[in-house]
Design brief:
Layout: H1 4-7, H2 10-17, E1 30-36, E2 41-50, E3 53-62, H3 65-78, H4 83-97, H5 122-140, E4 145-147
Parallel strand pairs: 1-4
Antiparallel strand pairs: 1-2, 2-3
Helix pairs in contact: 2-3, 3-5, 4-5
Length: 149
C-alpha cells in the first residue's frame, strides 16, 4: 500500500519547492482564478493563445506541494499544445488522479504520471485538479473564480 511519503515523490517536492512558470504573464489572452476552500489552495492561471495553440501558460498562487507541483507540471506539459490536446490531457489527468484505470498508462501524461498515487488520498484530488479546472475556465473565458466545492 502506498503511504503518504510515496505520494510526495521527489518530482512533486521539486516542483512544489521550485515551481516552473510561476509568474504573471504579460498580456495574457485569458486568465482565471481557482480556489480550494477545503485546504485554502489558490491559483491564477494565465494563458496566451496563438490561434488554437497554447503559446504560453503560467500561474501564480499559494497552495500545498501537490497543488503547486500540479500547476507547475501542467504548465510545462501544455505549453505549445492545442486547445483540444489540453482538454484531452485534462480528462486523462482527471482519470489518473481519481483512479479510473483506463487511462493510467497513457503515454502522453509524461511527468504528470507522478500523480497516480493521489487517487489513494481522495482529499488530495481537489489539490491536484485545482489548476486544471482553473485552466479549463480560462480556456472557456468564464471570467469567474472556480471553486473545487
Amino acid at each position: 500500500m502506498t503511504d503518504l511519503r510515496d505520494l510526495y515523490q521527489e518530482l512533486i517536492l521539486d516542483h512544489g519547492r521550485r515551481p516552473r512558470n510561476f509568474r504573471a504573464l504579460e498580456g495574457p489572452s485569458r486568465s482565471a482564478e481557482g480556489y480550494n476552500p477545503l485546504c485554502g489552495d489558490k491559483v491564477k492561471i494565465y494563458i496566451k493563445m496563438d490561434d488554437d495553440i497554447l503559446k504560453d501558460i503560467s500561474f501564480e498562487g499559494a497552495g500545498c506541494a501537490i497543488s503547486t507541483a500540479s500547476a507547475s507540471i501542467m504548465t510545462e506539459t501544455l505549453k505549445g499544445k492545442t486547445r483540444a490536446k489540453a482538454e484531452e490531457l485534462f480528462q486523462t489527468f482527471h482519470d489518473l488522479v481519481t483512479g479510473q484505470p483506463a487511462q493510467l498508462d497513457a503515454p502522453e501524461l509524461g511527468k504528470l504520471a507522478v500523480f497516480s498515487g493521489v487517487s489513494e488520498f481522495p482529499i488530495r484530488v481537489k489539490c491536484a485538479t485545482l489548476s486544471w479546472h482553473t485552466l479549463r475556465a480560462a480556456l472557456n473565458g468564464a471570467g469567474e473564480v472556480i471553486s473545487t466545492e
